[in-house]
Amino acid sequence: xxxxxxxxxxxxxxxxxxxxxxxxxxxxxxxxxxxxxxxxxxxxxxxxxxxxxxxxxxxxxxxxxxxxxxxxxxxxxxxxxxxxxxxxxxxxxxxxxxxxxxxxxxxxxxxxxxxxxxxxxxxxxxxxxxxxxxxxxxxxxxxxxxxxxxxxxxxxxxxxxxxxxxxxxxxxxxxxxxxxxxxxxxxxxxxxxxxxxxxxxxxxxxxxxxxxxxxxxxxxxxxxxxxxxxxxxxxxxxxxxxxxxxxxxxxxxxxxxxxxxxxxxxxxxxxxxxxxxxxxxxx
Length: 283
Hints:
This protein is of the alpha+beta class. The chain folds into two domains: 98 residues, 3-Layer(aba) Sandwich (Aminopeptidase), CATH 3.40.630; 148 residues, Aminopeptidase (3-Layer(aba) Sandwich). The chain contains eight helices and twelve strands. It is globular and about 60 Å long. The mean pLDDT is 94.
């Protein structure tokens, strides 16, 4: 390992370097996504510098002490095979261990899968990215999610996700309320959907519904707000209907990810209600 490598906490001034690595990798994040990590987990985001230049990144997000997410593990292609990604992976895991988190999760690409297995992660289930630009208009109007809805949505989400992530959901909602929706049957929530803008396309997720009908209504209503616009969604294959719903709306398979965990995994949540995850970097 080069003696000039420095591992340190990420700062806001590092965001342009993070964006450079995203662009090289073809990822969809924007500067706001990096800012969100620094707001929600300011001590848990790290960079590797080589000769004074940021060449690799990793982020973490804790969800109570139940589990946490590792994400944004990016390495400059010119410095691969020098161990920067491995060192940052270990730094992120050490930070979470010292913070008392019992389980670490990530959504791994095929390129990183063997590294994660070597570091004690185990496969949970498959995630698939699907892409669409449906020419869909005139669907039944969806109610916008309001600030008063957020507490009730977060309470249901805690059961389905497995831990409280209300700070993340609040951040997503405040970023763009037009990219959120909630469905109710009487007073009971039957589904909810969040979204955000990306550097390449709009991203939808988390997309959660207690029935296929609710999932379809959420997707139809959201797509009708923004017809003919390219959209990504990362489908949870623990949900038996996720692929067929996406196909019915004209989405096409793009790539595979593997959800993995290290630790006891005592809080798996209820992923069979999850149609689309919040994002590989978010869980």
